[in-house]
Every structure is written in structure tokens, then in C-alpha cells.
Amino acid sequence: MWADYAGLLVSFGIMVTGLLSPGPNILAIIGTSMERGRQAGSALACGIAVGSGLWAVLTVLGFSALMATYAGAMIVLKIAGAAYLAWLAFKSFRSAFGPTKQLNATARSDKALFWRGFLIQMTNPKAALMWIATVAVGIGSAAQVHISVLLVVGSFLLSLVGHLAYARAFSTEPVVRFYQRAKRWLDMAFGAFFAFAAFKLATSRS
Questions:
Q1: Any transmembrane segments, and where (predicted)?
Q2: What is the DSSP code (8-state) at residue 33?
């Protein structure tokens, strides 16, 4: 029994490491929080956290492993993820080179931002592979039901707290002032990152 709990801690450690490694999800929260404020960034973070929880559920149930077995399913997910990242890159570049607008003037509803975060997380095939590895390394295939439940709940809470922390940190007044001064360059940087991530995802073989 103690081995199961030790494995669960290993799984949580992998998740925390992922939270400290900026990817499309974290960059989206940073950009949204600086431009539109803490509430908008938090809505995006909640969508990402729900996506993380759903990936955890799918992995525990074996669906993500089944998806990984069929190359066609992963290819479809890769195309969808790359297309969505490319759309985010387009939005960032359009913001960088378009006319200057007052911050928050075009802010989306919290619901729309929630679904944006959810899509960012769910259209990333590497998330499916990461969860398969996390479960295999951390709790294995013969874990007790309550351990699997703890994994799902714990992963959701870690994702929620971690991503909300990014939203809070990057919506502070000094950071917002910096964003206002460097908005065009930051939007270009975000666009370049999303474009690069889309290219890497579309051309990856895994």
C-alpha cells in the first residue's frame, strides 16, 4: 500500500516539474493575464486545469493509451493541436501589428477564455503521452481504485493552483505596466512561440 502512495508522490512530482516548464498553456496564461487582467487569466487557468483533470481521467480509464495505439487518432489530434496553436500565433501577430487598442477593450467573456484554455490542453497529443508516462512511472496499471481517484483529484488541484499562480503573478501592477510599454514586442514573441510550437507539433513523429 505504501508503495502506491510513494508512486502517487512521484506522479505529482512529474506534474509539478511540468508546471515549471513553460509551454503553450502557461504562455497563454501569461499573455492573457498581462493584457486582460487577473480574472481573465484565471478563467483561462481554470479551463486548462479541467483539461488536465480530464486527461487524468482518460488515462486512468485507459482511453489515452488506446488513442496512442492507433496512429490515426494521434495524427488527427496533432493536426487539431497544431492548427489551434497556429491560430493563436495569428491572433498574437495581428495584435502586434494591428492598431493599438485600449487594454481590456476587446476582452473575451470568462466562459470563452475558459474554453480556450480547455482546448489548448485537450488538443495537445503530448499531454496524452505525458499522462501515460506519468501513470506508468507513478502508479502503474494495477493501482487500487482510491489511488487512481487521488491521482485525478490531485492532478486537477495541482494544475488549478499552479496555473492560477501564474495568472496572479503576471497580472500584478508592475507587470501590467511593463506589458503596456512593451506590448508590441511581447505579442510578437508570443506569436513566434505559438508558431514554433505549432510547427514542432505538426512535424513531430511521436
A1: 6-30, 42-64, 70-90, 118-139, 145-165, 185-203
A2: H
Alpha carbon distance 135, 170 (integer Å) = 31
Domain limits, the chain: 2-11+26-98+108-203
Q: What confidence tens digit (pLDDT) does each residue in 120-140 have?
A: 888 877 676 677 666 666 665
42: its cell numbers: 484565471
**Whole-structure pTM over 0.85, yes or no?**
no
The single residue listed with the C-alpha cell 505525458 is 130
* HEC profile of 35-81: HHCHHHHHHHHHHHHHHHHHHHHHHHHCHHHHHHHCHHHHHHHHHHH
Query: What proportions of the chain, in percent to the nearest 5, are helix, strand and coil?
Result: 85, 0, 15
